[in-house]
Specification:
Blueprint (H helix, E strand, L loop, with lengths): L1 H23 L8 E12 L3 E6 L5 E9 L2 E6 L12 E3 L4 E6 L7 E7 L5 E11 L14 H40 L1
Antiparallel strand pairs: 1-8, 2-7, 3-6, 3-8, 4-5, 4-7
């Protein structure tokens, strides 16, 4: 009878070990993703840690809170993104994932925030390069934010120039009319 219980206990322990190993095993990631970096750290409640991303192309940030709750904020406008100033965010209680588009200006600021619900949070962030090719239904790069921004600046500058010319014209015309009125009266 003791051998029977010993066998059951051995099977139970083996199952627990397999469960723990599978829990900590890397999640399946697409073949197109190339692992660039693994960053581990700790962050206090209500504090930020900042990282800088210089890699070009589509990047995937995959962060797991190992203890506590760390949140992820990303920006190409500031190197110190926060919950008030960011372009992309992931604020889950488990795994946080952010896809940084290729058109984001480099360097990209990454802010990791320790949620106040825990005194300290531990995290592990994996940085992947995404090699997937996007097929554009309307041709290559039908939306280019940099080109659109340049076009907007050009149209605003030509609009401002025409308003300036118009303003100068009216100023001269009004000055001439005042001069004529002073001579006549």
């Amino acid at each position: 009878m003791a051998a029977h219980w010993k066998g059951i206990l051995t099977i139970f322990v083996a199952a627990q070990v397999l469960f723990i190993v599978n829990t900590f095993e890397d999640e399946d990631v697409p073949e197109e993703w190339i692992l660039l970096h693994v960053v581990q750290g700790q962050i206090g409640a209500g504090n930020y840690s900042y990282l800088r991303l210089n890699h070009e192309g589509k990047i995937v940030l995959q962060m797991q809170s190992l203890k506590g709750d760390a949140d992820l904020y990303v920006s190409d406008m500031t190197l110190h993104p926060s919950f008030d100033e960011y372009e992309l965010q992931s604020v889950t209680c488990g795994q946080d994932v952010v896809h940084v588009p290729a058109h984001f200006r480099r360097p990209v600021g990454i802010g990791i925030y320790g949620h106040p619900s825990h005194l300290e949070s531990e995290f592990e962030m994996k940085v992947y390069y995404d090699r997937t090719v996007v097929q554009y239904p309307f041709g290559e790069a039908s939306y280019n934010p940099e080109e659109m921004e340049a076009n907007q600046k050009y149209s605003q500058s030509t609009e401002d120039e025409s308003q300036d010319e118009e303003s100068v014209f009216w100023t001269i015309l009004i000055g001439i009319l005042k001069l004529i009125l002073e001579i006549l009266f």
